[in-house]
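[Q] Does anyone have a clean structure-token version of this?
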Amino acid sequence: MKKFLAAALTAAMTMALLTGCGGDKAAGGANQSAAAGAGAGAAGGEVKDIALKVWCPQNQVDTGLMDEQQKAFAAEHPEYNITWTTEIVGEDKCQESVLKDVGAAADVFMFSSDQINSLVEAGAIARLGGSTETMVKENTAQSVIDTVTIDGALYGIPFTHNTFFMYYDKTILSEEDVTSLEKIMAKETADNVYNFYFESAGGWKLGAFYYGAGLNVFGPSGSDVAAGVDWNNETGVAVTNYLIDLINNPKCAYDGEISVSELVGDHRLGAWFDGSWNYNLYKEALGDDMGMAIIPTFNVNGTDYQMKGFYGSKAIGVNAKSQNMAAAVQFAAFLGNEANQTLRYEKSAQIPANLKAGESEAVQADPLAIVILDEANNASIAQPSSSEFSAKYWTYANTIPTEIRSGDITKENVQEKLDTFAEAMTQ
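[A] Here you go.
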């Protein structure tokens, strides 16, 4: 983790020009290999009518990026007459949407890397091999490749880093203020201004407190169910008591009661956590008053802890049941190549996972890229991707801040509540 992102902005590798795939069987016994090679199409120069459904997040449509990429791909592949269907499905919702009905899901989709195990176990995502695998392995840092690899098999094309960091309003907080949550909350602000915004994001951001304090779910790897959950030990109780004070602090805005965008536009919010996908939104609202930094330290009973946010990747996958596998693999590789990672960065500020794209002067001089590097190297942990973790953590972790805000969790019953959480996670 200390090395891979630095390499991602300095190393230049040879770019593979073709797409392809392998033919092994994957977990669960389903044949999930993408058995197609570059240039596959109708024989004898005939044009083949095909349909491709694509799922992507809102920003890929709003910027016009997906439409531009689809037209460019069609122009490069006259062997296909393509009918496109593009639907909005965020990377965070991909697994849920795919597993509802794999046969009806998109041929090509974008997903968060922590979903990889569940998609593979369900036989829902194609294994990638051949020149597609070569392209990824020759142009991506190994630690990023690992986020979409199971038992040595590649199941996705990483296109950007997936972590969050801290934004702040420079008219309210200074660079020194945002180094710790204590300094953020201690800053004197106007009555209608909130110093900090609390959003658990279903446990994604909440976990930064507990993991920062050295606690774990299913051990350091997140896959050892026998190791259990230690959030209910003495440190976990202290962290939860800290959160009770923070969430109930009148200078802390709470998600669901007021929106970040509403506050930011009026210079009424000091600091908040978010990712690169909303960079343009905040930059447009604040201009030069927008600041960025790694997530801060926090102090529990006299001990300073560095928060640790989850790190993963966002990747492009192919449906294992696609009726047009050759074209689906080719389009997925097209979306994930150097040129399109560069274009995606230019259009939606997503830092490329491709090494050569990340080597550009624009990326290396970009404050956004710099803060993501800093966050990944100094304030993050690898996001667990085991199906056991995914099946329970996102549901049960989110109850902690919800019950704190409702008053169901108090300092009087915090031990009991954390014991219940730990038990639910291991049942």
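[Q] Thanks! Anything notable?
[A] Residues 140 and 354 are 5 Å apart (CA to CA).
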